[in-house]
Amino acid sequence: MAKTIAVANQKGGVGKTTTAVNLAAVFGSMDEKVLLVDADPQGNATSGLGVDKRQCPVTVYEVMIGGEAASKAICHTQYKNLDLLAASIDMAGGEIEMASMERREDRLKIPLQEVKDNYDYIIIDCPPSLGLITTNSLNASDSILIPIQCEFYALEGLSQLINTVRRVKRQYNSMLELEGVLLTMYDGRLNLTQQVVTEVKKFFPRKVYSTVIPRAVRLSEAPGFGQPVEYYDHYSKGARAYRELAREILKKKG
Ligand code: ADP
Ligand code: MG
């Protein structure tokens, strides 16, 4: 049965989508069967995999709002062992539609249960907010992976994120764990980066991955070609970093 990991942080631009897409692709290349769920209405993970809306007409919107089966919505990608539950811009309004629904926190958890046996990992790319899509994602997950960008104010907003995790744990999903904290856009030459690393480690003792994701131009180019960096430039430092992260996570799972 799949382990489900939500990649979440309500701040935008911290590397959630980059991490979700690239970790999913690397797991796939390592013979793990993976489903990537693009829960962000912006759909950056969907386009980052080069998936066209027409190829994948049934989306996370029909599943979460329309009650469609996940198996009807999932599409295969051109990448090894990697399936996608595509995003839809309709989900932007979907959050409001969900608000008045019964069991509105279970709209993703229940459909994913039906497909969990088909995968080793389900990775959910969350939107940059702490609204209902993110709470649904956390409720559907075994753990949360938090990317943190090495910049000023890196810790800003983290207490709200942690409070949301606690609330979901208390009300809906007592099994939810902190998978780990990932430092992204790391530049070891900068004093600022070192300061952020120290602060983040103080905030999350023993939960920060020893793998860090460097600031790397290949990582920002790859989505423009609809490719995970694993396939776009296998030997680049970005690709190596995400392979190292995948190994670190696999090792922990045991
Ligand atoms: P989020 O999903 O949290 O909003 P993204 O993953 O979309 O963040 O990243 C924000 C921007 O930064 C994107 O343009 C992405 O290509 C770029 N980016 C992300 N990680 C890196 C990195 N390690 N090095 C360079 N650019 C990166
Ligand atoms: Mg994103």
UniProtKB/TrEMBL annotation:
Top-rank taxon: Bacteria
InterPro entries in alphabetical order: AAA_dom, DNA_Partitioning_ATPase, P-loop_NTPase
CDD domains named in the record: ParAB_family
Known catalytic reactions: ATP + H2O = ADP + phosphate + H(+)
Pfam families named in the record: AAA_31
Domain AAA: 2-177
Similarity remark: Belongs to the ParA family.
Subunit composition and interactions: Dimerizes in the presence of ATP but not ADP; ATP-binding is required for double-stranded (ds)DNA-binding. Interacts with DnaA.
PANTHER family for this protein: P-LOOP CONTAINING NUCLEOSIDE TRIPHOSPHATE HYDROLASE, PARA FAMILY PROTEIN CT_582
Name under which the protein is recorded: Sporulation initiation inhibitor protein Soj
Organism: Acutalibacter muris
